[in-house]
Each structure stands twice: as C-alpha cells, then as structure tokens.
UniProtKB/TrEMBL annotation, chain A:
<dbReference type="InterPro" id="IPR006311">
    <property type="entry name" value="TAT_signal"/>
</dbReference>
<dbReference type="GO" id="GO:0016491">
    <property type="term" value="F:oxidoreductase activity"/>
</dbReference>
<protein>
    <submittedName>
        <fullName>Xanthine dehydrogenase family protein molybdopterin-binding subunit</fullName>
    </submittedName>
</protein>
<feature type="domain" description="Aldehyde oxidase/xanthine dehydrogenase a/b hammerhead">
    <location>
        <begin position="219"/>
        <end position="297"/>
    </location>
</feature>
<dbReference type="Pfam" id="PF02738">
    <property type="entry name" value="MoCoBD_1"/>
</dbReference>
<dbReference type="Pfam" id="PF20256">
    <property type="entry name" value="MoCoBD_2"/>
</dbReference>
<dbReference type="InterPro" id="IPR000674">
    <property type="entry name" value="Ald_Oxase/Xan_DH_a/b"/>
</dbReference>
<dbReference type="InterPro" id="IPR012368">
    <property type="entry name" value="OxRdtase_Mopterin-bd_su_IorB"/>
</dbReference>
<dbReference type="InterPro" id="IPR037165">
    <property type="entry name" value="AldOxase/xan_DH_Mopterin-bd_sf"/>
</dbReference>
Automatic annotation (TrEMBL), chain B:
<dbReference type="InterPro" id="IPR036884">
    <property type="entry name" value="2Fe-2S-bd_dom_sf"/>
</dbReference>
<dbReference type="Pfam" id="PF01799">
    <property type="entry name" value="Fer2_2"/>
</dbReference>
<dbReference type="GO" id="GO:0046872">
    <property type="term" value="F:metal ion binding"/>
</dbReference>
<dbReference type="GO" id="GO:0016491">
    <property type="term" value="F:oxidoreductase activity"/>
</dbReference>
<keyword id="KW-0560">Oxidoreductase</keyword>
<keyword id="KW-0001">2Fe-2S</keyword>
<protein>
    <submittedName>
        <fullName>(2Fe-2S)-binding protein</fullName>
    </submittedName>
</protein>
<keyword id="KW-0408">Iron</keyword>
<dbReference type="GO" id="GO:0051537">
    <property type="term" value="F:2 iron, 2 sulfur cluster binding"/>
</dbReference>
Length: 733, 156
C-alpha cells in the first residue's frame, strides 16, 4: 500500500513500505504518521539509518521516532518524540514520527509484557526505554564524528542537532548518520547510559512545542482507517444479530444484490456481510438484507433485570472479599452515626468519533491488517487464528485512530477478527475494509459494565471515620480473557474494585466485597476503567461523612490523607486555585473530589448553578494534576480538559440500556454526547515533580462525577448517587 | 452522470442522484478530510460548505448540490480558500485544538461559516453555532478559544 502524505510546504512523502529499512527481526515497518514541516527536510535524502527499534536518522537530518503506542488523540506520539528529541539533543523541527509495526519482541508495552496501549502506561513504560534509545543513537553519532575529526568523543558537544568540537569543527546528525549507523548495533535493550538531568531539559516540560499531529489533523490530511482505499478494495458492512449471543440462521439477499455497487453477500460467524465497491452501496445493501437470527443462545435480559441482579447482590454478603482490614461490620454495629448509600451505574458506550473499522488483505499465505490497532499482541494472535495462518505471517500496520477510550483494545479483537472473517469468506480475492456504522458501533457491545454499590460508613464521636463497608456487584471485565490470571485473584477482578479496595483515606476498619454477575453483554475497560464508578461512590460518601461531622470537605479529606502527600498536594492546589471557602450566592454550589488512578493524582473543584427550571449548569472546573515529570505540559492540560468533558457527558446523561436483550440506543440522538454548550470552563494546574512520569489519558475522568455530585449537594442539599443525572430537577437551598 | 462543483473544480460523476454527498466526496472523489461519524446529521463530522453555508454532507443528496459550490476542508485551507478558513486553521494550529482529530474538519467548517457571518462571536454565539459538532475528546474549550483567536486574526 502506498499513501502519499503532503508535508505542509514540502515534498510529498512516499510512504510505501519498501521505502523504509526493515527493523531487525521485525515483520514490517509502520507508516509515517506525523512530522514537522521544515525546509531542511525538503532536500532529497538517502535511506534512513535505523539506530535501534525506536530511532532512525536520515542523511538529510530527519530524526524519525518509532512510536510503539497507538495515538488515538492522547498525544503519545508527541510525548515519545519529545523524550527522544530531548535525550538526543535533536532539533525539534527535524523530528518525525512513525507508528511501530506489530512486533511484540521489539515493541512490547513493558507494563503489560505485550504490545498494546492502555492503562495510561504509554509514557511511564517508555520513559527509560526511549531515553536509552535516544542516548544510544546520540552516542553513536558523537562516536562517528570523533572518529572522523580524530578527536576525543568526550570533547564533542551536541546542541539542537548540531555536533561540534572546540576546534571549530561542526556537523549535522544527517552527515554522520551512515557512519554512525555502521557502528550502531540495533538491539531491543541498549546499555543504560547516563541520562540528562531535569535541570538541563530544553524540551521536556517546556511550553510551546506543538503536537506532531497538529498540522495533518488540522488540514484534513491525517489518514485514519476510514480513509484507506486500496486498489480493488471492497467495503464491507455487516448485519449483526440484534441480541448478544445471537447468530445468523438464514438470509435473503435478493434486494441487497439489486443495489448498484454491491458485489457479494457472505455469511460469517458474527453476521451477514455485504461487500460493495463503495461504502454507501454496502450500507444500503446491508439495510436491504433480510436475515433470520438464531437467538437460542442469546442474552434476553434487559438492563432493568440485570440491575435488579446487581442490587440484589449488594444486599447480601459479597461472594469474594477484596479488602478486609480490621472489623468493619463490628465497628459499624457500635458506631454512633452510620451513613448508608446505594449507587447504580449504567452500561456506557465508548462511542469514539471514528466508528470501528479495519482493513484486511489476504495474500501470499499471510494476512495484512491496517487499522488503529491498540492491542497488537492479541490482534496478531486472533488474526492468525481466524485467518488460519502462522503468527509470523500476520502484519499489522497502525494508523491514527479517531478516538478509542479503550474500545480498540479488545481481548477478542472483535472488529479485526470480523474483518479477517470477511476477507476469508471471499477467499482473499480483494482487500476488504470493514466499516461499522455508528449504530453498529453503539450496539456492538463491550460496554463499561453496569454496577451497583452499597456503602455503609460510620464516624466516631470526633467525626472521623471508624468503619467503611463497601459492596460492589457487576460483570467482570477480565474473566475469560488472557488477562484473567494476572488480574483476577481469589474471585476478585481488580478492575471491578480498584479505587475502592485501595481506599486512600485512613479508615481503621475497611471491608470491600465483590459479587461478580454473569451476563451475555460484552463488557470492557472504558477510559479509567474501575475508577469510573468507584471514585464516584468513595468521593461522594467521604463528602457525606465530612458534612455529617460538620467539617469542611477539603479539611476533612486532608486530615485523612496525612500519609498521602501526592493526594493532599493536588487537593490543596485545586482548592486554592478555585477559591475554596468563598461564600457563594444562592443557587450556586461548589464540590470537590480527589482520586488517584494509574499512579497519577487528580483533584477537581466543580462550580454549578441550579437554573430556574431546576436543571444543573456546570460552570467551571478547576483541576490539579500530579503525574510526575511532565513531558508535554500542553498535552497534559489537554488530556485533563478532555477527561473532564468525557466523564461529564457520562455523568450528565449517558446510559446504554437494553430491553429484552436488545440495545435501545443506536446513535447520538439517544446516546447524547456532551456538546460544546455543556462544556464548562476548565482550568488545569500541574504539580511540579521530579518523580518518574505517569499517565494522564485516564486520570482526569474519575473525579468529575463525584465533584459534580458534591457541588449539587452544596447547592441543593440533595445527594446524587445514581448516574447519570438525566432529567432530574433540583431546588436550591 | 451528475455535475458537481467541488473546491472550485467542475466534476462529472457517474453516481446515483440520491447518493449522500459525504460518500461522493470520500469514496468517489477521494476527499477524505470530510469524515463519517453518525450518518444522521447528529455529529457534524461531515460538515461541508454549500454556497458558504455549513451543511451535513451525510444527509445532503448529490442532486441537491448540483448548482451549488461545494467546499470541503481541503478547499477551505487551500491557497484559494476563504480568509475565514485560513484564520480558523491558523488558530487551530496555534492552540493545538486537535486530539484524535477525527471531528476537527467538521469543527473548522462550522467555525469558518460562523465567522463569515459574525465577525466577533460571543461564547453564546459560538456554543449555538457549534452545538451540532460533537467531539468525544471534548476539545470544546479550545474550539471556543480558537474561534475567538481566529476572529482576532481576521480583525488584524
């Protein structure tokens, strides 16, 4: 496949696979995904020299950073490029980026020991690896210059891509790329060199670096899976069973075949696929199909019945115990003041802007997939199995993804598997682009699970908590997946209880129980996973305890966070910047929440207005984040702003519901996303830190719903426990 | 055969009259900057200009655009593009509005159309004009700021 991408102000790049060197031992080389416009790059250049799996230098001076993680908007391509440019002392203007091919031996996420993107691990797991790769490449360039100039390597300086010696000799990266490449040994684990001191950073933590994908995503030239067009390609749209677990029994395609452009209709295990010469014909063809479904193994329950099962489970002792410190039940019995709170959380769809899709070519006994691949290790295994070819015959090229929020990392690789099934069903006679419509995407499952919580918490005579008894019930994300052995222990799926089982507050008697509910609705991690619900329960109950104790909610939390300096740090910063403690007018409310997820700490203060009709308007969110060393401050701010918006949409009005096993929402008319008129003003403050960097893709999400609920309480005296808020009206006090 | 004027170019296309413009632009003409998000005019990712007005190309039939000037993101930011388009693009770049980027062509088309009719939009004007453009990354705060920034650039 060849994609021509126009460099703004420069020459078009030939992105055919052959134009790049193969990575040592690698299956293939990814597409160039972003680059900085610079006149220096306009000159014709020879083949780039691969220094190691992560860094290439072209004779024209371009430094290409190979990005092992999917960038679905979170800015990891920019982050990894910044780390490399810093440690190489490269000129930022010469940096380009390219997605790594699927090759777990070279490109595993060191946090997962598998190639994949998630859990806000990208920068954290890549930090030492990419610094090492960059420092190694820099050392090789210096060595080559030293040899040519016949000087000691230690006398050579590198500043902004210029190699120089006190004698007056200077040279560029490009000039020494080939010589340095000769001596550079491509290896997955170069020797650990001496890294730069943070005080010497000129890119990391600095303002003013633009995202590497800023230009191409602003002028419409960035290529997503949806935009791929291969010679002879057919577009496939699939009729899926209306209930999870359903299967096609028989179909009539007489009307579908009459549609101009429709080429073929095939039955596959997941439905009936219409293949056409263009997308519109495939959609029309799919709509014209008559399919009879076999629902004998399908999930027939609706969300009301499933929620009733969750509610019933939390009214009884949990099947498994996640945490048991002290004697929570005993302490509750003797306590003066006990608070009981029940919570309900619905299924949630990821609903990324780019509906799911994948391109598949079967040829030469192998399979080639191009998509926004987020979990390559699993995608490789699934594609190999479905296609019936050995794993080393599977090539996956990654392109930009129009969002994911977790949905493109699927333990079953559902959408990739389906694309391969279709390519196989037509004997690989043409490349296939599988396109899910918005309805397919929204009804296609893999939701944030539905959960019920019951919390009973008590305070002592001094108002401080003495017991916390927390029950959670819902489906397990990890059970039945390859991750089960790692993340499910003694019947506890950690992703069902994380954020509650490791309660940050000092409570002497703590018990967290879990009952896992079985249902046929596919579930999955959704931006910030378990914290999406546990933070809401924990942070609204702690707020309730503070009010019950007659104490200020910020002071109360700080008193319980004495041993948690990073929680306390963000809480203090957000409170101070928000003007916590000011008197607010009637009809206004201010609430706070603080939560750690994925080793990053975020506090948010939310201001709301109760409108005359009783509806809630979110006016402002002041956030503070501690994510260790900040690689790109503007990307951090963007992720927290976006996390606030993503979580707020869900808190206000999102829910996937089922009736008789069928999903009731199909598009944005019924699953109403946050719109610009709902978006509050968001301020983000970053804690200065020299701790190792941690992630920011997810941690902005968990605090927003509880901070909002706590603000509504401050304004109205009413506790919001069930999400979403929906059409509830409030009266201010 | 249908004749369409796309980004200033006359094109003759062998397509059914009721084909949505979205698919004509993307699949027939190869202008993939206009995105498919929902197919039912709920998200705005497919926003284009029809004689300067922002329309959802997923719900506009090719036949309805025959005598109109169609402009896509590619035409908006090209050398021949509008001054509003250039200001919007410059502001978007300056503020790093994009995250996943998938909705941004549509956002910019709506923003340029707003500025063509309102030189100095308030936040409320922006919210009203941009409410049909969904961004699941929630870049809305920067969209607002970038529109104000573009308005300033147009003043200068």
């Amino acid at each position: 496949m060849t994609i021509q991408q126009k460099i703004p102000g420069g020459r078009p790049l030939d992105l055919s696979r052959r134009s790049f060197l193969a990575v040592a031992g690698g299956a293939g080389v990814g597409l160039v995904i972003g680059l900085k416009a610079d006149p220096a790059l306009a000159a014709p250049s020879g083949a780039p020299v691969q220094f190691n799996p992560f860094v290439k230098v072209s004779p024209d001076g371009a430094v290409t950073v190979i990005v092992k993680h999917l960038d679905k908007g979170q800015g990891v391509a920019t982050g990894l490029a910044t780390i490399v440019a810093e440690e190489m002392d490269a000129d930022w203007a010469t940096i380009r980026t390219e997605f790594a091919p699927a090759n777990p031996a070279l490109y595993a996420n060191l946090a997962f020991k598998a190639q994949g993107t998630g859990g806000s691990t990208s920068i954290a797991n890549s930090w030492d690896q990419y610094r090492t790769a960059a420092a190694t490449a820099r050392a090789a360039l210096v060595k080559a210059a030293a040899a040519e100039w016949k000087v000691a390597a230690g006398e050579i300086k590198v500043v902004n891509g210029v190699i120089s010696h006190p004698s007056g000799k200077t040279g560029s990266f490009g000039q020494f790329a080939e010589k340095a490449g000769d001596s550079a040994e491509p290896t997955a684990a170069p020797q650990a060199p001496q890294f730069k001191e943070p005080k010497d950073y000129r890119l990391i933590g600095k303002e003013g670096l633009h995202r590497v994908d800023n230009d191409s995503k602003t002028d419409g030239t960035a290529i997503y899976t949806q935009d791929l067009k291969l010679p002879g390609m057919l577009v496939a749209v699939v009729a899926h069973p209306p209930k999870f677990g359903g299967k096609p029994k028989s179909f009539n395609d007489a009307e579908a075949r009459k549609i101009r452009g429709v080429e073929q209709v095939v039955q596959i295990p997941t439905g009936v696929a219409v293949l056409a010469r263009n997308t519109w014909a495939a959609i029309q063809g799919r709509n014209a199909l008559e399919v009879e479904w076999d629902d004998s193994a399908a999930e027939n329950r609706g969300s009301d019945e499933l929620m009733a099962a969750c509610k019933d489970a939390v009214s009884k002792p949990g099947v498994a115990t996640a945490t048991n410190a002290g004697d929570a039940e005993g302490a509750l019995k003797g306590a003066a003041k006990v608070i009981e709170a029940d919570f309900a959380f619905p299924y949630l769809a990821h609903a990324a802007m780019e509906p799911l899709n994948a391109c598949v070519e079967l040829k030469d006994g192998g399979v080639k997939i191009t998509t926004g691949a987020q979990f390559q290790s699993i995608d490789l295994a699934v594609a190999s199995k479905v296609a019936g070819v050995p794993m080393d015959k599977v090539v996956i090229d990654t392109v930009w993804a129009g969002g994911s929020f977790g949905r493109r990392a699927v333990p079953t690789s559902d959408y990739i598997a389906e694309a391969v099934m279709i390519a196989k069903a037509i004997d690989g006679k043409a490349p296939v682009k599988l396109v899910w419509t918005r309805e397919d995407d929204m009804k296609g499952g893999y939701y944030r699970p539905m959960y019920a919580h019951r919390v009973r918490a008590a305070i002592g005579p001094d108002g401080m908590p003495v017991a916390w008894h927390h029950r959670i019930a819902g489906q397990s994300i990890m059970t039945g997946t390859a991750m089960e052995p790692m993340l499910v222990k003694d019947g506890v799926d950690d992703t069902s209880v994380e954020g509650a089982s490791n309660l940050a507050y000092a409570v002497p008697n703590l018990k967290v129980e879990l009952t896992t509910i079985k249902a046929g609705v596919p579930v999955l991690w959704w931006r910030s996973v378990g914290h999406t619900h546990t933070a809401h329960a924990v942070e609204t109950v702690i707020d309730e305890l503070a009010y019950a104790a007659g104490k200020d909610p910020v002071e109360y939390r700080l008193a319980l966070l004495k041993d948690k300096p990073r929680h306390a740090g963000v809480l203090k910063l957000a409170a101070e910047k928000a003007g916590w403690g000011e008197k607010l007018a009637k009809g206004k409310g201010r609430g706070v929440a603080v939560h750690e997820s994925f080793n990053s700490y975020v506090a948010q203060v939310v201001d709301v207005t109760i409108k005359p009709d009783g509806a809630v308007k979110v006016d402002r969110v002041v956030a503070a984040v501690d994510c260790g060393i900040v690689v790109n401050p503007d990307v951090v701010r963007a992720q927290i702003e976006g996390g606030v918006g993503f979580g707020l949409g869900a808190a206000l009005r999102n829910a996937i519901t089922l009736k008789g096993g069928e999903v009731e929402q199909g598009n944005f008319d019924k699953y109403k996303p946050l719109r610009i008129s709902d978006m509050p003003h968001v301020e983000v403050h970053i804690v200065k830190s020299e701790e190792k960097p941690t992630g920011v893709g997810e941690p902005g999400v968990p605090p927003i719903a509880p901070a909002l609920a706590n603000a509504i309480f401050a304004a109205t005296g009413k506790r919001v426990r069930d999400l979403p808020l929906g059409d509830q009206k409030f009266t201010s006090v | 055969m249908i004749k369409l004027n796309i980004n200033g170019e006359e094109r003759e296309l062998d397509i059914a009259e009721d084909t949505p413009l979205l698919w004509v632009l993307r699949d027939e003409v190869g202008l993939t900057g206009t995105k498919f998000g929902c197919g039912v005019a709920q998200c705005g990712a497919c926003t284009i200009h029809l004689d300067g007005a922002p329309v959802r190309s997923c719900m506009t039939m090719a036949a309805d655009a025959v005598d109109s000037k169609i402009v896509t993101i590619e035409g908006l930011v090209a050398e021949t593009g509008s001054k509003e388009g250039k200001a919007v693009q410059a502001a978007w770049r300056a503020l790093d509005v994009v995250q996943c980027g998938y909705c941004q062509s549509g956002q910019m088309m709506s923003a340029a159309a707003l500025l063509a009719g309102n030189k100095k939009p308030s936040d409320a004007d922006i919210d009203s004009a941009m409410n049909g453009n969904v961004c699941r990354c929630a870049t809305y705060q920067r969209v607002r700021a970038a529109i104000h920034d573009a308005a300033k650039r147009l003043e200068a």
